[in-house]
Amino acid sequence: LLYTIKFEYVSTMVSEKMSVVFSVRNEPSALVKALTPFQKNCINLTHIESRPLAEDTSKYKFLVNLEIGHEEDEKRFQTAISELKEISDKDCVKVLSRRDVLDVAHKDDEVPWFPIKIAELDRFASQILSYGADLDADHPGFTDDVYRKRRKIFADIAYNYKHGEPIPAVEYNEAELKTWSTVFTKLSTLFETHACKEFRNVWPLLVQNCNYNKDNIPQLQQVSQFLKDCTGFTLRPVAGLLSSRDFLAGLAFRVFHSTQYIRHGANPFYTPEPDVCHELIGHVPMFCDPEFAAFSQEIGMASLGAPDDWIEKLATLYWFTIEFGVCREDGALKAYGAGCLSSIEELQNCVCDASKKLPFEVPEIAVTKYPITTIQPVYFVAPSFGEAKRKVREYSSQIPRAFTARYNPYTQSVELINKRSNCVKMIRDLASEMKTLEDAVNKLED
């Protein structure tokens, strides 16, 4: 596949932000040739980035961002895309536009593309924003050739993974196992006093069923299967950071994008990005809890088709809950966020009196700025996951969408409740569930 073109419509009024992703052979003037259609048609590009194509090292993949402001821009853009297609075999070009979900709404409104079927999450594999096999100059492993080669191995697994396949097992080397052991051993001493009861209840089960211990890094496939048995959540490998929109969309399907690589051993208690310690120690135990799993999916469902400004708000809610959430348990502060549970310094800071605590008010949380590379200066304390879920759902009802979506666990797909027939089907499903509940209550009375 020489070119893959992706459109993402994200505005309904003034302009449309779009992304075009394509790959070219690594040869002289290849990029200039590929960008010429945009220049020729006066299309203003706002961002360009590149990286080697994981599945074919003779090619480079490029991401270009642009905005279309009016109808004339749209015509020029379509011309540019047509010319870009001519560079390659026409059949190799795929154009993904918005899904038509507004059958009963305004036909002119544009909705950001979002997955309907769980297999469509495969499209996110190559859309990581940073890291993966490439490391920034300030990354602890930037000058370590062995570490960089290991990161490429993990990145290739994620790039090539498809939904429904077993996640390939990884044989971790001695340095990686040592880093895991250091982190695991230290954190384990704090869980009993610092982690919430939901985490503490699941931790022994992970030790028993998934071989969680200081001398072994659990395999994602084994953990994913256990997680699925608990709450229906599954893991899928990812090479690095996804955009907020893509990552949250995964949660709607009860899919968590998990890294397999581990932080650099030079500083085992610090990582500039999520790693396998963060995922398996911080996230997995909480996704095993039904109430927390439902809360996480609620944020994901709210993100589907949401405008960019709402994605930012939902990502902020995710940050202060699923990543750095704190709750009260018998009057004491306990951590339930993965960022807290997988960091010694953060775990101690979030429950101590010195750090700032605020009540769980969603409108305030959604617009609160936060640092991503330092200890959090403020935490929002939730009374319970159920109450947090209720408040998030209430807040999400304000998102300007002309449809309602629900997740069908039987087909692992998102259903749009935007027609009378959809509503009738949902009523029938609910009636069936109520009949089951009625039968259960009657037997309890007997």
Question: How would you describe what is shown here?
Answer:
The structure is a single chain. The chain has 446 residues and is of the alpha/beta class. It contains 16 helices and 13 strands. It has helices at 30-40, 71-86, 145-160, 174-188, 191-194, 197-209, 220-231, 244-252, 276-287, 290-303, 308-323, 338-341, 344-351, 362-365, 385-396, 420-445, and strands spanning 5-6, 16-25, 45-52, 59-68, 95-96, 234-237, 255-258, 326-329, 332-335, 356-359, 378-382, 404-408, 413-417. Helix 1 runs antiparallel to helix 2 (71-86), helix 8 packs across helix 10 (290-303) and helix 10 runs parallel beside helix 15. The chain is globular and about 70 Å long. 38% of the residues are buried.
Order of strands across the main sheet: 9-8-11-10
Share of helical residues: 40-55%
Please give the radius of gyration in angstroms.
23 Å
Helix/strand class: alpha/beta
Order of helices and strands: EEHEEHEHHHHHEHEHHHEEHHEHEHEEH
Low-confidence stretches: 1-14, 89-109
Largest sheet: 4 strands, mixed
> β content, as a range?
15-25%
From the N-terminal CA to the C-terminal CA, the straight-line distance is 64 Å
Q: Globular, elongated, flat, extended or rod-shaped: what is the shape?
A: globular
Query: How many alpha or pi helices?
Result: 16
Mean pLDDT: 83
User: Would you count the extended β strands for me?
Assistant: 13
